[in-house]
Structure formats: C-alpha cells, structure tokens
Amino acid sequence: MSIDALDRQLIADDIDAYLKQHGEKDLLRFITCGSVDDGKSTLIGRLLFDSKMIFEDHLAAIEAASTHHGTVGNETDLALLTDGLRAEREQGITIDVAYRFFSTQRRKFIIADTPGHEQYTRNMATGASTADLAVILIDARHGILDQTRRHSFISSLLGIQHMIVAINKMDLVDYSQDVYEDIKRQFVDFAARLDVNDIHFIPISALVGDNVVHRSEQTPWFQGRPLLSMLEEVHIASDRNYIDFRLPIQSVLRPHLNFRGYQGTIASGAIKVGDKVMAMPSGKTSHVERIVTFDGDQMEAFPPQAVTVTLTDEIDLSRGDMLVRPKNIPRSARYFEAMVVWMHDGPLVNGRGYLLKVGTQNVPADVSDIRYRVDVNTLKQVAAHPVDGVPGLHLNEVGRILFEANRDVLFDPYRKNRATGSFIIIDRITNVTVGAGMILDRHTHDGQQGQRRGLSKHHPLLNAVDGTITGQARQDRFGHPASTIWLTGLPRSGKSTVAYALETRLWDLGCAVHVLDGVAMRLGLSKDLGFSADDRSESSRRAAETARILNDAGMMTIAAFVSPYAADRERARLRISSEKFIQVWLETAVSTCEQRDENLYPDGDGIYAQARAGKIKNFTGISAPYEAPDDADLVVKTESMSVDEIVESIIELLKTRSLLPE
Amino acid sequence: MTLNFRLSHLKQLEAESIHIIREVVAEFENPVMLYSIGKDSSVMLHLARKAFHPAPLPFKLLHVDTTWKFKEMIDFRDRFCEEHGFELIVHTNQDAVTQGINPFDHGSNVYTNAFKTVALKQALRAGQFDAAFGGARRDEEKSRAKERVYSFRDGQSQWDPKNQRPELWNLYNGRVNRDKNESIRVFPLSNWTELDIWLYIHLENISIVPLYLSAERPVVWRNGTWIMVDDERMRLQPGEEPQMKWVRFRTLGCYPLTGAVESKATELTGVIQEMLLTKTSERQGRLIDFDEDGSMEQKKREGYF
Fold first, then answer.
1. CATH architecture type of domain A331-450
2. Helices (H), A14-135
C-alpha cells in the first residue's frame, strides 16, 4: 500500500525504523471544496492513486463500477473512489461529508470531502470545522463562481487559516498562463474581504495528474511546488492557541475517597504541575497537584491532550465548568453574539428557545435578535428573511445572532479560540443538531460595534462595590423616588417636544429631573454609532445604562428614543428595573410623521424625504422596522391629543404609581 | 515556558478517541462497549482503560457470539476479561440457534442477519443501552467513510444515511429520546486507519488474539481464500481436503466466513511489514461484503454495526 520505492525499501530492510518514522508523523486535516463539476472527487482519487493509497481490490471494484456509473468514458473514473453511498452513485453527485485518509513520509492526512452542490452549505461547514487547511477548486474554464465565493467565505468563517486555490482542468485551457493569472487576480481581489492569513495558488489537472503529486512539464511558467508537496509542508503548528489555558471539565473521576480527578481535553494553553489555577465560574483557586494518565504522571499538559488533573485543594468543579489561570480567564455572560450557520429544513426563528452545547456546557438559550444575514455569495449584510412575520434564518443561511442564555456561559471569541468559541444548536423537541455557531469577538470583529452586550458582566474579579448612600436617602433628599419615563415612537412622533414639556412640568412640581434625548446622545456619547440594527440596539443599551445612572443618582429621567426594537426596550426595562420604568408609546402614523417633517422642511431636505430618496439608509418607518410595543404602560395618540394633554396623562400615570413628590 | 508542544498523529488520534469515550460516559445513562475480540476492539478497549484510569471501566462489554467464532477468540476473550476484571455480557440469538441457522445451509446473508444484526438488536434492547461503542473505522469501506462518530439510530436501530446529524468540531450531540428507544452508535476509532491500529498495538504492546500471527493451521481453499477448519462442524465440500498451511488472519470473525492469507509472519512487526508491502484491503478477507455492490450500506440500514 505505501508510498514510494524508498519507503518500500525501508519497510523491507528495517521495519522497526520505518515504524518509528511513521509513529512520529504529524497530522494535517484539510477540506476540499469546489462546485459540482470542478473535479473534486477526481482530485482526491488522484491524490490517493498517485500516492499509492488505493488497494488493488478497491481499484478493481472501481474499474468495474466505472462501466456502470463512470462519467469519463472508458478510463477508470477516480471519482468513484470517493463516492460512497448508493444514492449518490446513482445521482452521480456527492451529498455528504466523507473522510479519506492517506499518509506520506512526512504527514498523515485526513481529507474531509465536502460537497459542491449549492444546497449543502451545512456539510461544507461540518467539514471545515475540524480542518486546518482548505483546498478550493476552480474550473479553469469557468473561473470564479458564486459557489467559489461561498466556499471560501465558509472556510474563512470557520476559522481556516490556510487556503490552497487549485485552478483545475488546466488541460482543457491549453495550460494557459493568462487564464491562470486572470483567475488568480480575481480571487486575490475577492479574498481581501476574507479573514485568511495564508493563500497559495496552483494550476493543476486532477484528471491527468498535472501538479498534483508530481510537477507538470505542461506548466513551465509555474514555479511553485505540486499540491501534495504544499500539503506536506504547510506550517500549522502555530495555528493552535498555546497561550490561554482552558480545560473544560468533561467529568469528575472519583474511584475512591482519596482521589478526585478532573477530566477533560486541553482546549488551549498549557499547564504544569504546581501551577496556580482557577475554577470557573466559582472563582476558587488552587494548584495543580498531578496530571494523571494511564502511562504515568506527566509534568505538563497541552492541547489536544486528554488528561486527568488533581488539585491540591478540594474545590467545587463539575462538568461544564472550566479550569483556567487566575489572570487569564474566559468571558462569562448570558448574552453573546455569534455567526450562525443554519443546518435544518425548518428555520431558526427570532425569539425561539434552543439548547446550545458550548464545549462541555449544555445551556438553554433564546434567540434574542437576528442582527443580519450574510449573503454568502456577495458577503454583504442583508436583512433576514421573515418567517411568519418574524425574522428567521433558513437552511444553509448564515447570520449574526444575539443569544440570551438562561445562565452565564463560559466562552472565548472563536477567532481567538476555536475550541472554546464554538457551539452547536440543538432543537429541544427533536434533539436534532440544527445549527452551528462561532462566538464573535466584541473587541475586534467589526470595530466599535464590538463594545457591546453585557459581555463579561459577571467577571468574577469585577464585583461592583456598593456605596453607603442608599436609594432611600436620595429619595428623602429629593422628595420623590427615582424613575425613568421611556418615550418611544417613530421619528417626528413628538418625543423631544413631549420630553421637554414634561421636564418643565415635573421641574415645577419640585422634581429633580433631566431629559436624555436621542439626538443629543447621538451627538455625544453615541456619536460612534450608525443606524444599522446593531447600532440602534447599542444606542438603546447606552441610553438605558445612562438612565440607570441618573436613577441611581436619585433623579427622574425622561428618555426620548426611537428605540424601534421590542427586545431592546425590554432590556432597558430589566436594566433599570420594572418598578422604576414607565414606557410611553407616542403612537403616530408614518404618514403623519412624514407630513410633520415636510412641514418643518418644505424644501424636500427633511429626514423622511431623504430616506425616501435612499439618501438615509435604515430609516425607521421607511426602510427599517419599528416594532410597536404591546406592553407600553401608556399609549398616547399624538394625532388627536395636544402636547399638554399628553403631558397631563403621563403625570396622572406617575401619580398612580406614586412616583411624584407627596 | 519552553515546552515542546508537538504531538504525533497517533497521540492526537488517541486523545481524540479518549475525549469521545469520556463524553459518552458523561452524557449517556447506560452505555455499553461492543467487544468483538478483534484488533480494533482491543485498541478501543485499551483507549477506554486510558480514559478512566485510575478508575475501573464505567461500562460493561458486550460480545455478540454467533457460536461460529474461532475457539482461540473465545479463549482469549474469557482470559482477557477475567485478567482485567471487565464485566462481560455474551449474547447469542437463541432463536437462530433453535432454527438451526448456520453459514453453510443459509448463506452468509441470512446467517449474518440472524446471528449478528438481529442478535445485536436483541442484546441492546435487553440491556436498555442508549449508547453502544463500536470499533469501526472510516477507512474500512466506502460507506463507512461518511459515518458520523455519533451515529444516530431510531427505535428499530436503523441507520438513515440521509438523516444523520451534522457533526462539527468535537461537539457531539448525544441527545436521544429514550422513550422511543432511540440510541447512538459511537465510533471512537473513526479517524484511525488500519496502519494506525497496527502501529498503536505495536507501540502500546496491546494483547491480541494469536490468530493474527502466522502459525501452521488446518485450512481448505474455498472461494479464492483459505478457510480454517476450526472444529468438527466445518462442512467440507467434495474434493476439499484440509491441509496444514502457514497462515494468519487480517481480520477476525466467524471462522467459516473468514479468509486467511499465507504468511510466515510470526511476530507483529512482520505482520505490519507484510501488510505494507501488499496491496489488498483489509475487508477482502470477509466474505459478507461481497454479496452485492453496496452490501455494507444495506446491512447498516438494517441495523448492522
């Protein structure tokens, strides 16, 4: 079976030396992806065939099968080597992920053979999840297709750092350097938008064998190495995270009273006997006493070793917890955002609950928001398709999702740590795996947008200290309790007008009161934000936090914000606390608001006019949704009520809630 | 820190398998390990011991005995389990015994279904197991290449190749509906190749049944392979005369259906050497795969491991 004459000689002469050499090989996992007829299966067949990995009886079976199913005339169809399931053979198409194995003198390889068919993004993501490298196949005759972009994007999304772009079927374009260079240039342009460190190009013919295992004489203009040689030499050791020590606990081993071992696979970083460690989420610290294995104790451990660790102290640590270093800890949060690949026929629906498996943690979580969907062909952020009127994510779609777990989850951003930043999504009724997620890095993902979402809010070393002046003391001094009156409604529904009129009325009643105005906030505290769904949510979050600070200071706060999303208003309510939070909806038809805007700016440069003209994007009411509240404490119809009437109705409500001075 | 973080591919495979075995024990109520006495089973069992050291194995072993296994396999099994204190369940399809089903009169299809597929389902049902470890590898056969590490089986133990759960990273979905008798077959050796198995046995000094090493054995030439006359139940066809040959087995199953190869390799390294220098794949010695094109896939759909 194995390799070349040199190897055979070594095997025959000195089997022990050969076994020692083979035992020392390292491992490269890669995926192959391309469109339906790009020649992927043929390429894999060629790699196995030319590296002498095909057994004679397998080959005989393929030769027989070629006459039934083959697509290359009388030649042995190497693609049939990798097409395993009967249905696929009948359709002449690969429909699942298949794993292939071969080795050379230097490396053992595991190939995830992933499908080119348009509908099977999910299998591609599956294959990519464990791969170090992606081989992207392009048919030289067709150049870059939508699917090429899709496969490259998914590879990048799943964190693959090395890419080999194999421009195949060079024999059918007369080995033209111009064709090759042209495709290469196009790909480089496109790849600038991807997050891949290392891209190589190579002209090949999988069918004939050019530049696959051996250098081709047909491409004298190509100076690079053949594909197999690239696969042997690509440097992957530094891809792994050896910095941030993380040991997610799989189970606790207690064979007898004197032994308590914490079992798990080192996800990242390294640890030595004697090192100080901290248990998450308890925050308790101890030291590593022993690293126990069947083959004897080790002095150190590193990824991906599966170990059993004992500690010098008995601390509370069970499955789903994590052992880390005290000065280098993962995030811990109920809210987090992730890029999600949806893998099921039924859609992901905003608001629905799922079960997440994050490392060894099983956590129920709700989809709190679908920020956007990524068009995998153009890489553009677009709105999620609605499912029964609610935003959703369909089979093979990719989107950015905000999750709210029912407790704190321990994680790292996927970019920094594949092992602790990934999760699968499980349907709670059918138990089927319906999606896969990669947690985003709030610091680096897309600029300031990252500074969001109560991440790390339960950092064990970050406990808020309470002052000695109580809320009651402040209430006694100001003569009334603190509260937030949250005015929500479309632009030009009259929020600011009502806010400042209400402020004057309350001031006259002796209240300590202040207006937080959306426009003013956007000129200052939130001037880094735009008007995407994401930015609007962040704007609401900052408004809520600011209102809370003013409330903590004992003041009444009038917050006037469009705040179009129900989820964001609900978060504000939770943050400020329900008994202090009064939500008032200024109900106004879009047409009325638009008319008011036109009255203000009769020359056609009002905000509605600009939005209609497409000059302002994501304008609430025109090109972005406003989710009307169904839980408002008070609804005022601005079309039929005067400003004074509105203010008095709010005052009445505050009275009944005992929020005004006695 | 000046540690060398390099792990050979075998050590990486070992770690991956241990992770899988631990994950199953952590998440399932009642797992069992299929023990076929073959080399893959021996490696899997060795990995399980590593996974729970210094504790004993947290599950039982299950051997589906067809009554036609090689005597040496059964001897090895009993000795090995006793030596290590493993709890072993041996199950045989008694209905098939009563019906007198045997590999000579009924053909390998009927025989295999009764003594392997049906027997396995009976044993798993009787034990109420929600997870069963098997030693299958993806490199064995084409339809295996697409098998998941966690292979979901419905209440009838059937495998639907179009309805397998996506499997990403090392995050395995172990959720089953126990009320519907759903279960998972788990393959911790999925990413091992035949050469990896042999090399690991060599490096770790794992005990294997001596049938893997060459010895002089009584055999007859049948269907293009050497079949061993292991006991008096072996039916000889006209013209067949048992003869003593130096042979060994590349795979172990039921003796009337398992072909031997001629060999002088009486030591493990010699076996590996011969394997590397020949070009015949492993399952060729097993007659059951040759019934029809795609036969393994068909058997798996019906509930075969």
1. Beta Barrel (2.40)
2. 15-23, 40-50, 56-69, 86-91, 121-129
Query: Nearest by CB to B173, which of A25, A95, A357?
Result: A357
Question: Is it the case that residue A422 has pLDDT exceeding 50?
Answer: yes
Is the CB of B161 less than 8 angstroms away from the CB of A270?
A: no
Asked if A346 is an interface residue toward chain B (Cβ–Cβ < 8 A), one would say no
Helices (H), A561-642: 566-576, 590-600, 607-612
**Is A250 an interface residue toward B (CB < 8 Å)?**
yes
Average pLDDT for residues A633-661, to the nearest whole number?
92
The closest alpha carbon to B30, from B119, B123, B92, B117, belongs to B123
Q: Which domain holds residue B276?
A: 201-290
CA atoms of A290 and A296, how far apart (whole Å)? 10
d(CA A462, CA A460): 6
Is residue B298 situated within a structural domain?
no
Both B117 and B25 in one domain: the answer is yes
Cβ pair B203:A23 closer than 8 A: yes
CATH 3.40.50.300 maps onto chain A at: 5-239, 471-656
pLDDT tens, residue by residue, A301-342: 999 999 999 999 989 899 999 999 998 999 999 999 999 999
- Cβ neighbours of residue B272 under 8 Å, at least 6 residues apart? A15, A19, B195, B198, B199, B202
How far is the C-alpha of A82 from the C-alpha of B177, rounded, in Å?
A: 33
User: What's the mean pLDDT in A433-459?
Assistant: 57
Quick one: B210 and B178 in the same domain? no
The H or E element that residue A12 is part of is helix A5-13
Query: Using an 8 Å Cβ cutoff, are A313 and A286 in contact?
Result: yes
Rounded Cα distance between B166 and B58, Å, is 28
Which of B196, B218, B235 represents a domain boundary (last residue)? B196
B225 and B92 housed in the same domain: no
| B230/B172 same-domain check | no
CB proximity B12 to A under 8 Å: yes
pLDDT band at B62 (very low <50, low <70, confident <90, very high): very high
A448–B contact, CB cutoff 8 A: no
Q: Is residue B4 part of a domain?
A: no
- Any bridge partners for residue A382, and if so which? A373
- Helices B268-277 + B194-204 axis angle, to 10: 160
Q: How confident is the model at residue A72 (pLDDT cuts 50, 70, 90)?
A: low
Pick the CATH number of A471-656 from 3.40.50.300, 3.40.50.410, 1.10.10.10, 1.10.3210.10: 3.40.50.300
Looking at residue B164, what is its pLDDT? 77
Nearest to B9 among A2, A25, A240 (CB): A25
Answer yes or no: is pLDDT of A64 > 80.
Answer: no
Query: Residues near A438 by Cβ (< 8 Å), separated by ≥ 6?
Result: A157, A158, A159, A338, A339, A340, A414, A421, A422
Q: What was the ipTM of the complex prediction?
A: 0.90
Average pLDDT of chain A is 85
Most confident of the following: A65-69, A172-176, A376-380, B277-281: A172-176
Q: Which CATH superfamily is domain A246-324 in?
A: Translation factors (2.40.30.10)
Residue pair A189/A148 in contact by the 8 Å Cβ criterion: no
B167 contacts in chain A (CB < 8 Å): 126, 433
Least confident of A439-448, A634-643, B191-200: A439-448
* Domain A5-239 listed as CATH 3.40.50.300: yes
Nearest to A587 by CA among A626, A631, A632, A635: A635
Residue A3 has pLDDT above 60, yes or no: no
pLDDT band at A614 (very low <50, low <70, confident <90, very high): confident
Q: Looking at CA atoms only, how far is residue B267 from chain A in angstroms? A: 12
* Closest-CA distance of chain B to residue A361, Å: 10
